[in-house]
Design goal:
With about 575 residues, the protein is of the alpha/beta class. Helices cover about 25% and strands about 10% of the residues. It contains 17 helices and 17 strands. The chain has a 7-stranded parallel sheet with strand order 8-7-3-2-1-10-9, covered by helices on one side. Helix 1 crosses helix 4, helix 7 packs parallel to helix 9 and helix 14 runs parallel beside helix 17. The longest helix has 18 residues. About 0% of the residues have low confidence.
Length: about 575
C-alpha cells in the first residue's frame, strides 16, 4: 500500500488550515455536510470522469452555497465494480481522479475556505484487486494471507458447492469459488471480498489508514457498512431464510450484522480519533434497529450515526413528526447529535420520490418499482415533487443536528431514469436483472453551464454517465441568475441557518391543523410546514411574525396574511 507522507504546503495555507482545525471541536453537531460523489461532480481534464482538481476548482461554489463540510465518497484506486466502494488501496488516490498531491491541495484549499472534509472509509470489504486479496488467492488453504479474508471449504466431496445458500446484497450467491475447493465470502459484489475483522492484522491496518488520512488533514470519516464488520461463522451456517428473518433482531445475535464485537473495534478507532486536536469525527452508515443505533453514536464509539428515517418516509406530517420525536429522544439518550438526510448516492433523488404516489408498503423504497418499469415520466408529478422537496428541505434545515446534503439536490435535480442498459454501471443492474435497475440515475454528472459541452461538467463533451437534454434547465448558471430558483433557496437557507442556529433543541407548537407541523428553535426561529394540498391560515401569534424565507411564493396564497400554501415551509421570527 502507498504510505507517502503529506506534501509540504505553503506557509499561508498551512496557517489557514491550522486556524480552521483549531476551531470548535463540536463543529460537526449542527454542520451542513455536502456529499460529493467525485466521479460525477466536476471534471478538470475532460476525460468524462470527475476528479480531485475538479472539486478544487469548484470550491468557490461550495463557499457560496454555505456548507460547513464536504463528505467525499471513495476516491481510492478502484476498478469501479461498485462505483469506487471496491477499494484496491486504502492509502492512495485513484490515478483517474488525481494524485496524493492533488488530494493535499484540495484539503488545503477547502480548509482555507473554512470547509472541513469527511472521507468515506470502506472497512467491510476490499476489492479483489487489493494486494492482500491477490496474495490470498495465490496462497494455500489455511495460510495467513487467506485469514485476512473469509475463506471456507465448499460443500460436497470435491468442495464444488458453496458453504451456504447465502445471497449477496447485490443479488446472486454471496460465496465465490477460489478454484481449489474453497470459497470466499462477499456480501456485496464478487469483486468485494469481505475482510476478516477477527484478524488482528486487519484491525491494525485500518488504524494505520485512519492515521494516514487524519495526518493529511481529513477531519472525519463516514464509515461504510459500519454494522457489517464482525461476523459469526460458526458451523453449521444458518440458511439464507433464517438470516433474512432475523436481520433486524435488535439483540446483536445476527451472524453477519450489528454484532456486539463491534463495540471493541470502534473503541479502538475512537482512541485514534482522540489522538488529534480537535478529535477526528465519524458517522456510521449502520442499517440497524433504532434501539441499536446508539452503539455507533456513543462518544466512546464513532460518535454519530446516520438515521435514514426521513429518507424513507412519505411527505407526511404524521410521519415527519414521529420521526423527529423519536430521533430527538435518541440524541438526548446518547449525547450525540441527530443526522438528517433525504438523498444520497444510493437512493432515488427526493425531488422525484415526492412526485410519485405515496409508499403504502412501509418498505421505504419509493421509486425502485418506478425505475424497474422504465421510469415513465407520466407517473411522476414533477412540479409537485420539486415543490415538496423544497418544503422538506427547509423543514430539515430547521431541525437541530447535522444536515447531510447530496450533490445536485440544491439544484432540485430529479432522478435520471432514461439511461440505456448499455451505459449503466451499477452492479445491482447486472446482478439483479428484473429486480432492480440500480443507482446510476442519482449519480449522473452535474450540470454547471446550460450551453456548454457536458453542461460544464468538464471541458469536453465526455460524461461517464449520459446527461439528459433537460439538464440544461437545472444548470447552476441558470439557477444562479434566478432569485426564486432552488439553488437560490438553498443558499439563502444555509446562510440563515448559520445566523439562527442555537442550542440543539426544539419545541413543537400545537396547532389545530392536522396537515401542519410547526416548531420553534431557541431565539424565536420558527419553522412551519404545510404538508397538505390546501392553503392553511396560521393562528394569531404566528402570522404576525416576520417571514424570513419560504419554499414557495406566499403572495398568491390569499390576500390575508399568515396563509401558508400547500406543500410549503416558511421560516419566521
Amino acid at each position: 500500500m502507498t504510505d507517502a507522507r503529506p506534501s509540504t504546503l505553503d506557509t499561508e495555507n498551512a496557517l489557514d488550515t491550522e486556524a480552521v482545525l483549531a476551531a470548535d471541536p463540536d463543529w460537526w453537531r449542527q454542520a451542513a455536510v455536502y456529499q460529493i460523489y467525485p466521479r460525477s461532480f466536476a471534471d478538470a481534464n475532460g476525460d468524462g470522469i470527475g476528479d480531485l482538481r475538479g472539486i478544487t476548482s469548484r470550491i468557490p461554489y461550495l463557499v457560496e452555497l454555505g456548507i460547513d463540510a464536504v463528505w467525499l465518497s471513495p476516491f481510492y484506486p478502484s476498478a469501479l465494480a461498485d462505483g469506487g466502494y471496491d477499494v484496491d488501496d486504502y492509502r492512495n488516490v485513484d490515478p483517474k481522479l488525481g494524485t496524493l498531491d492533488d488530494f493535499d491541495e484540495m484539503v488545503a484549499a477547502l480548509h482555507a475556505a473554512g470547509i472541513r472534509i469527511i472521507a468515506d472509509i470502506v472497512p467491510n470489504h476490499s476489492s479483489n484487486l487489493h494486494e492482500w486479496f491477490r496474495e490470498a488467492l495465490a496462497a494455500p488453504k489455511g495460510s495467513a494471507a487467506r485469514d485476512r479474508y473469509i475463506f471456507r471449504d465448499g460443500e460436497g466431496p470435491d468442495g464444488s458447492e458453496p458453504p451456504s445458500d447465502w445471497q449477496s446484497i447485490f443479488g446472486g450467491p454471496a460465496w465465490h469459488p477460489a478454484g481449489d475447493g474453497q470459497w470466499y465470502l462477499h456480501l456485496f459484489a464478487p469483486e468485494q471480498p469481505d475482510l476478516n475483522w477477527a484478524n488482528r492484522e486487519v484491525r491494525d491496518d485500518f488504524l494505520r489508514t485512519i492515521r494516514f488520512w487524519s495526518d493529511r488533514g481529513v477531519d472525519g470519516f463516514r464509515v461504510d457498512v459500519a454494522h457489517g464488520l464482525a461476523k459469526d461463522l460458526t458451523y453449521p451456517l444458518r440458511s439464507h431464510a433464517e438470516l433474512e428473518a432475523t436481520k433486524l433482531a435488535g439483540d446483536g445475535s445476527h451472524p453477519l450484522w450489528d454484532r456486539e464485537e463491534l463495540d471493541e473495534t470502534y473503541a479502538e478507532w475512537r482512541a485514534v480519533f482522540d489522538e488529534y486536536d480537535p478529535p477526528r469525527i465519524a458517522v456510521a452508515e449502520a442499517w440497524v434497529a433504532p434501539t441499536r443505533r446508539h452503539r455507533y453514536a456513543a462518544a466512546t464509539s464513532l460518535g454519530q450515526a446516520f438515521n435514514f428515517d426521513l429518507l424513507r418516509a412519505n411527505f407526511s406530517s404524521e410521519e415527519f413528526h414521529e420521526i423527529v420525536d423519536r430521533n430527538m429522544e435518541f440524541a438526548g439518550e446518547t449525547g450525540s447529535s441527530n443526522t438528517w438526510v433525504f438523498s444520497n448516492h444510493d437512493v432515488v433523488r427526493h425531488a422525484t420520490r415526492y412526485g410519485l404516489p405515496a409508499d403504502v408498503s412501509g418498505e421505504g423504497d419509493v421509486g425502485k418499482d418506478w425505475l424497474l418499469r422504465g421510469g415513465p415520466a407520466s407517473e411522476v408529478d414533477a412540479a409537485l415533487g420539486l415543490r415538496r422537496a423544497r418544503a422538506a428541505t427547509l423543514f430539515l434545515l430547521g431541525l437541530p443536528g447535522s444536515a447531510y446534503l447530496y450533490q445536485g439536490e440544491e439544484l432540485g435535480l430529479p432522478e435520471v431514469a432514461e439511461i440505456p442498459s448499455s451505459e449503466r454501471q451499477d452492479p445491482t443492474f447486472f446482478r439483479n436483472a428484473g429486480v432492480e435497475v440500480g443507482r446510476d440515475g442519482c449519480r449522473v454528472p452535474l450540470p454547471w453551464v446550460a450551453d456548454a459541452p457536458s453542461f460544464g461538467f468538464g471541458p469536453s463533451a465526455a460524461s461517464h454517465l449520459p446527461q439528459p437534454a433537460w439538464f440544461s434547465s437545472f444548470a447552476v448558471d441558470v439557477q444562479s441568475a434566478d432569485s426564486s430558483s432552488t439553488l437560490s433557496m438553498y443558499r439563502r437557507a444555509l446562510a440563515l441557518r448559520h445566523e439562527l442556529q442555537g442550542l440543539e433543541q426544539l419545541a413543537w407548537i400545537s396547532l389545530d391543523l392536522p396537515s401542519v407541523l410547526a416548531f420553534q428553535r431557541p431565539g424565536g426561529w420558527t419553522v412551519v410546514t404545510n404538508f397538505g394540498s390546501s392553503p392553511v391560515t396560521l393562528p394569531d401569534g404566528l402570522h404576525e411574525l416576520e417571514v424570513l424565507l419560504a419554499s414557495a411564493p406566499l403572495d398568491s396564497a390569499a390576500a390575508a396574511p399568515g396563509v401558508v400554501p400547500p406543500a410549503t415551509t416558511v421560516w419566521l421570527r
